What we know:
About 25% of the residues lie in helices and about 25% in strands. It is α+β, with helices and mostly antiparallel strands.
Amino acid sequence: MIRMVSAALLATVANAQPLAIVPVAAQTAAPADMRTSLDALLAASYPADDPGATMIVSRGGKTLYIGARGMADIASKRALTPDSVIRIGSITKQFTAAVVLQLVSEGKLSLDDPVTRFYPDYPAPGGAATVRQLLNHTSGIQSYTGIPGWMVAANTGRAFTTDALIAEFRDKPTEFAPGAKWNYNNSGYVLLGGIIEKVTGAPWYTAIDTRIVKPLGLTSIRYGNPPAAPNWATPYGPGGIPAQAVDMSVPQAAGGLVGNVADLAKWAQALHHGRVVPPALYAQMIAPTTLNDGTTNPYGFGLSNGKLRGVADIEHSGGIMGGVTDSLYVPSQDLFVAVFSNSDAPMTAPGLVMRRAAAIAMGKPYADLKAQPADAAAIAPMLGLYAIAGPTPAERRFWAKDRKYFIRRGEGRPSEVLYAGDNRFAMANGSLTWFRVIAQPGGGYAMEMFQNGEEPAERAMRTGPVPAEP
């Protein structure tokens, strides 16, 4: 659903229109070359006259950069601004998780409480899932957003009470026993919203407002019903058409908030510096999940562990009708980056822009590979089968067809690649992944694949030509 920026588009930066940049009270001057690079990144990633995105980069709670590109409303030609309010989707989950952890710290519930403590007639085995398993997506309960045919406008466009929404999935077969596997699950967070309501006696979003939004002075973060708000960015779908209708009682505590990037940065600074939940519970919030068999998953409670340029980060994205968002925090640098799009089919995935922006701020920018004319005769000897060594050996195919180049790992889908000079190849879809082919001193070729632009590279050795098509 997300379209990546093309290498050709990257070359248009010099002719791009100006971005919307506004002063921020807590803003700290970033180096001019960083600001120039981030301006260029936004301009290359989003058109000026279609839905676009807002972006913030902050360090130590001080804004280094904030900007916007594209239209908040196409019909009225109203441009996005850095304070535009956008649906944040599943970034909502970290707010829900934080309220749950506050209630745990107050002794009002336990992470090991089963669903049946709050919903006594919830059927087994889902009823035995704990609050912890709802938070870390190991409950095994059917995710309503994954029920075939459910996510149609007739459902998403109507209002649900919490109990009515739970009724949509409570009697569905579970996917696995609680704790046996990890599977991203929106139903779990709907149940958490219901648990917040039962414990506090108020709607889940009221608890977020009174416990988090107001104390932290977040002026834009709120429940997404009703949609109208100052600086509201119209939600769009593919091709700049209005997004599919969604009442925000449908994403509920799994994705029902809206806000702007500046408030999310303020929230992140408070959360990651002990101003929202006690340290011991925060440590559990960002810890990987351990399954029943002892294996782990990088997801915690509403946040996930990752790496950027080899450095540990904490991140979460969101996707909803009319909005795609992404955010990350790098603890070792006290660095936060968020990108919000007011389209569910933006020209460039916000996560890609976010990672590039964070890498620039870290002084470790990703390789800037642009398509160059390819010498087919010089590339021909590099084509072939490549064996990937490791605990689970695999094979990669690199071939040419109709004057284009493609690569495929195992039986996966082929990906077109573009020659970028010096025996380097970039993904045609604009992702951060790239590879280079290196001639070996004793003959033959090695392939070094930089997955998602990260090091170390996955190395493979050429074993022979690609078999001819039957």
